[in-house]
Amino acid sequence: MRRSVLVTGATGGVGLETALRLAHGGYDVFGTAVDKGEAALLREAAAARGVGVRTVLLDVTDPYSCEQAFGEVAAHTDGGPWALVNNAGILRMGAVEDLDDTAVHELFDVNLHGAARLTRLAVPVMRARGEGRVVNNSSLAGRVTAPLMGWYCATKAAMNAWNDALRMEVSPAGIQVVLIEADGYGSPIWDRAADALGALAHSSSPHASAYRAMIPALRAAARKPGPEPLIRALVRALTAPRPKARQLVGVKAHLSALADPLGPHRIADHLKRAAVDLGGPTRSAAVRRAAHRWCAPW
Question: Which of 51, 52, 69, 283 is surrounded by the most beta carbons within 10 Å?
Answer without folding.
Answer: 69
